[in-house]
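User:
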Amino acid sequence: MREKHRESVQGHAQLFKVLSDPNRLLIVSLLSRGELCACVILAELQITQPTLSHHMRILCDSGLTAGRKEGKWTHYSLQDDALQSLKAFWEEITSENESQGSYEISCEEVCCQ
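Assistant: Predicted structure:
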């Protein structure tokens, strides 16, 4: 496997791991409509503030979301660059793409002789 592609896969695997939690997927879904105050997310998900803080820290650390303080509350939004990268990666790995070339190793070299 090409080294650059392997690095891309590893980086994106971390983002998919972040999104593997149902609450975090719901948060991303809510934020897809625009910036939201943490109080709205709390009310929508019916979770505790410490639980939301935990999920938001993971989402923010991954680069998928960002937060800004306004008074005592934090307002969260999606980070378009990270989402576009994730979308492009998903499209790349799920579409048939002749330009990627063939595998470096053939079946005949490994097992089928």
